[in-house]
Amino acid sequence: MSGHNLEIKDFLVNRYLKSLYKVTVSSGKEVTIVKEMDSIKKYIFAIDNYDKYLQKASLISKIGEEFIFHLKKCLKLSKQTENFLKLLHKNKRLSRIAEICDEFSGFLEKMEGKKTFYIDYAKSFSAVEKKKLQKNLQEVFGGEINCLYSCNPSLIGGITIRFHSKILDYSLKSKLLRLHSAIKGDNYEN
Predict the structure, then answer these.
(1) What is the pTM of this model?
(2) Alpha-carbon distance values, 173 to 94, 151, 176 (Å)
């Protein structure tokens, strides 16, 4: 599956993407929900025979409920994402969650008609700094862009910029990890 194939052929997946998009925009939690969809996708792909497991979770109510409960607990999901998963489960469509997660950020971008960048920053990020970063990104990538900001203190300092599957990591955390690995002789690459 391509995470950014904007021509979604599957009507059912497209219908649920539209539903999730409406919830995302109305709640103003674009960054949170995109990150949660990415986390769910990684979690699912780590399950052996995930496709068979999701089929069971779709068809057997108790397995589906346990799966959603476990996702909520492990990933600390927002109420919006939890409710979306419950909707999929109620409609016996939980087996499609991997596809929905895989397509969501590209769908969000398509609906907004802009290139969307997800920026995490460690500490305060002033309006002037945000405007300068947005201007620089627009010069490099062209067209209309949308920057969605989120504070992530675990970065210690600096920022990370995500666009599609590419991540530019300018955080102090990753620099410290690289330095630690260099000292230990490991081959850490971010």
Answers:
(1) 0.67
(2) 36, 14, 5
Length of the chain: 190
Q: In the block, which residue shows the tokens 């802009």?
A: 114
Indicate the average pLDDT of the chain: 88
* Contact present, 150 and 120 (Cβ < 8 Å): yes
The whole-angstrom separation of Cα 47 and Cα 44 is: 5
Per DSSP, the residues of 103-171 read: HHHHHHHHHHTSEEEEEEESS---HHHHHHHHHHHHHHH-S-EEEEEEE-GGG-SEEEEEETTEEEEEE
CATH architecture of the domain 11-110 equals Orthogonal Bundle (1.10)
Each residue's pLDDT tens digit, 115-163: 888 899 998 889 999 999 999 999 888 888 888 888 889 999 999 998 8
Q: Give the pair of three-digit tokens for residue 188.
A: 């850490």
Predicted pLDDT of residue 7: 47
Topology of domain 114-184 in CATH is Glutaredoxin (3.40.30)
